[in-house]
Amino acid sequence: MLLLEKIYTEEHRIFRDSLRRYLEKNVTPYVEEWEKKGIVPKEAWRGFGAQGFLCPWLPEEYGGSGVGYEYSVIITEELARTNQLGLIAPLHSDVIVPYIYSFGNEEQKKKWLPGCASGETITAIAMTEPETGSDLAAIRTTAIKDGDEYVINGQKTFISNGVNCGLVIIAAKTDPKASPAHTGISLIVVEDSTPGFVKGRNLEKIGMKSQDTAEMFFEDCRVPQANLLGDEGAGFKYMMIKLQQERLVSAWASQVMAELALEYTIEYTKSRMAFGRPISRFQHNAFKLAEMATEVELGRTFMEALTLDHIEGKDIVKKVSMAKYWIAEMANRVAQQGIQLHGGYGYMEEYPIARLFRDVRVQTIFAGTSEIMKLIISRLMGL
């Protein structure tokens, strides 16, 4: 961590050590159990929150510690190193809760944020719909005013934390006739158990199995107008503002997964013998490992520079889009090469490279596909 070391203090190191010990005792032993059940229990979230590992950046008045974003980076790194992003705290802490903090009014903040920091309230954000994918402006879910309420109708899918969440922020059209269409989108908070809000099944995925992902259905679901986040019709703008940090979070997860894949592969190839010597000594394999190490090092340097710029409040939309695209693709390349160098053992579930290979695949898809990232980059290049 050459660049981030410039701002890390002894307090950061103490925090990392404390988090690492907590994960070793309270998370790592249960990873396989959670994978089989397809969900992380809510008590694990509460335990994480009780230690101050959720939303540490929140001011103390809302239940946080009021520390900098670099603490969030440490949490993302250490969770990824345990191979346990099923407890997807970075999504909750650094992607969803910031919507409430940035765009919510004081009443909303006092009502919802303390539970988010303690782990009593797990959050989700519902953007994606079955027929829209990356085209957020084309969402069909509506929230129409009726008296002092919004009546919500529509369907969402692929919602992370969708089963566990007690609070979901939905993107809905409060003005279905708006032109351009994105100016009619608003963000509305829906609490669990609200009549008309139904959580669908926990979707079965090829990877990230312990991270609950669900469909959501809204049928004449009535919520108070007081649950509107910010201004009506500003939802699309708010999402664009917050996607910078979401993509930074996603890129960090990809980076650490690439580093893990490299570590697993180096360790295996140095111990695996063939023709009387470690397979890491064969020139082809050594060259592959050198290529992997180079890409991983480039990713780390890029991510640390971006994070410092983000902490300083700089506009990194173009660069973070580059990072989200390139590092996610790089992590998949490194994991795939790691599987190949493991040979038949890489295909066995008992080897951690196999699970990592499955888990990393989604990184090029969620939080904006690689293709969407390239589109954003090209437009910001003036093309």
Proportion of residues in β-strands: 15-25%
For this structure, the CATH topology of the largest domain is Butyryl-CoA Dehydrogenase, subunit A, domain 3
Low-confidence stretches: none
CATH architecture name of the largest domain: Up-down Bundle
How are the strands ordered across the major sheet?
Answer: 1-4-5-8
- Strands, total number: 10
Mean pLDDT: 95
Instruction: Provide the gyration radius in Å.
Output: 21 Å
CATH C-level category of the largest domain: Mainly Alpha
What's the CATH H-level homologous superfamily of the largest domain?
Butyryl-CoA Dehydrogenase, subunit A, domain 3
Shape: globular
Number of folding domains?
A: 3
Question: Which structural category fits the helices and strands?
Answer: alpha+beta
Number of helices: 11
Helix content bin: 40-55%
Q: End-to-end distance, in Å?
A: 35 Å
Q: Tell me about the biggest sheet?
A: 4 strands, mixed
Provide the succession of SSEs. Answer: HHHHHHEEEEEEEEHEEHHHH
Give a short overview.
The protein is α+β, with helices and mostly antiparallel strands.
